[in-house]
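Internal tracking record. Fields below are filled automatically when a chain is submitted to the structure queue. Please do not edit lines marked as system-generated. If the sequence contains nonstandard residues, flag them in the REMARKS field before resubmitting.
Queue: standard
Priority: normal
Entity type: single polypeptide chain
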Amino acid sequence: MTENSPDKKPEILDAEIVEDTPTPPVEVPEPDYSESGVPSFDHVRDRIEQRYTTSIGSTELAGLGGKEDVASLDKKIADRDKAAKDKLAEIRRAMREQ
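SYSTEM-GENERATED OUTPUT FOLLOWS
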């Protein structure tokens, strides 16, 4: 007889359903902290540097100090543009002479 023949009855399995017992989660410390929760020196240094650069950037954006204010930056841009135009005119004159 084969398994799929109509004369054979399927076997009944007697099984018991077992509930999964929850396993307590394993607490892995963050990579920048020790097992006791103390931050590493590199982590502390990175945080201080991040806060410092953020404060410098916000003061520059707000225009509240720093070495250069908006007027001096505008003057530098205008001077650079004038120097570029003068150099371009010089190159064009040199090309005409050849």
